[in-house]
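Class, carefully examine what follows:
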Amino acid sequence: MSTQVPPIHSTAAAPMLELRGVHTHIGAYHILHGVDLTVPRGQLTMLLGRNGAGKTTTLRTIMGLWQASQGRVLLGGEDITRLPTPAIARQSVAYVPENMGIFADLSVKENLLLAARQARHAGQMDEERLQWIFGLFPAVQKFWNHPAGKLSGGQKQMVAVARAIVEPRDLLIIDEPSKGLAPAIIHKMIAAFEQLKAAGVTILLVEQNLAFAKRLGDSVAVMDNGRVVHAGRMADLAADTDLQQSLLGLAL
């Protein structure tokens, strides 16, 4: 006989995001095996782990792109487990996938305009916010009218993040933003995330660049074989080389 799970009501004290016992199957494959994850409000939470640990599947499950087969996903204490992806996005959540999801045939301006729901043309976009984004990512302004597909990998990543923040968001979920980027562009990306943190945005970040993680992370969760096997403060993990070797097989 199944037990009725009591409803959870949103409160100011609730974490921004919480996964409770989440399982995800993709076809015949059981990828997530009871993921428990807490993302505190106003912090940047790093999600680390070896390749194939289940990090990207976790993000896609949060966003409803893959459906959890068991467990609950809570946003501000409210259950979003069964919501479709557009409904989750409307809860002030932005997601930047590993492949960036850029519309290659559209200009940079048109890519951002698609994400600016309150604007029907570029003149209706929030000019003050655009100038702030241009300050974070000068390449976005420089290539404003260029086809996004013609940009370099680093420039596309900047456009992807800019598109995610063209409107204020409570939660950003970003999959490996520094992957394949030159060090100079990584530094710009770090500066952008530091500003977003300072503005009170909650961020969940999958990252393989451990220097990046150490610099930005407030809290950390480490995944292995479809489970969270460690959670705590990023600073504590960064200071414990034995724990790093045990969890990740390498040192920060």
